[in-house]
Amino acid sequence: MVNHTDSIAQLATLIKNHQHIVALTGAGISAAAGIPTLEQINRDSSIAANFSEEALEAEPVSFYAHFHQAFIDPIFNNGPTIAHNVLAQLEHRHLLDGVVTTNVDYLHEQAGSQQVAPIWSSLNINHCLDCGRIYPLSILQASVPHCPTCGGLISPDPLFRHIATLPAERAKADDCMASADLVLVIGSNGYYDNVGRTATVVDINPKPTMFDRQATLTIHQDANAVFTKLATNLHLPTTSITK
Hints:
Elements: H1 4-17, E1 21-25, H2 38-43, H3 45-50, H4 53-58, H5 60-78, H6 82-92, E2 98-101, H7 107-111, E3 116-118, E4 126-128, E5 134-135, E6 154-156, H8 157-160, H9 167-178, E7 182-186, E8 200-204, E9 217-219, H10 223-234
Parallel strand pairs: 1-2, 1-7, 2-3, 7-8, 8-9
Antiparallel strand pairs: 4-5, 4-6
């Protein structure tokens, strides 16, 4: 039987003994908020078929009904999670240099993290398809969001870019990783894999991942369980910085 108490103690010691710590997060960190992973979206044809700009323009009411159910409602009703909050607390105490994430849900920023590289963009960037103006996440709370200026339909940036990597954010992520001496991989399946070979790696994921073979410490638990215990060990609150 795996002793997770020992694993949390090891994780806390690693954090205390390293100077440049970076978190790499994937969909697993947001699972507790009820946000589907990319694998879940791809497995469910009814979801995947609705998440395209073509679907948005053809049936905006249907598109946003699905989009609210999958993303917007969980973001505002359930997020950020304890894991997001504790990462923000670590950064606030200068124990974490930053976060590299393939998630678009903006939950790291909502938890209070300042140094975030969202390499696949963010739902805090939303385009008017007519005039091109940009709006923040809050505009997506409307049942079918339209531009307050021209009335055009709003498209979330990750959809607008077809989930393409943002070069500036990728460069920021690579720079952050280059200086890291400890990388906390949390709920990631390797869509970003530029983890420095000289850094100590901790892999936190309920299931085995490609990072396990590189990891000094592997914790096969969900992120919220791990960070709840870590917060207790390090005497950190589990609330967001912004609250």
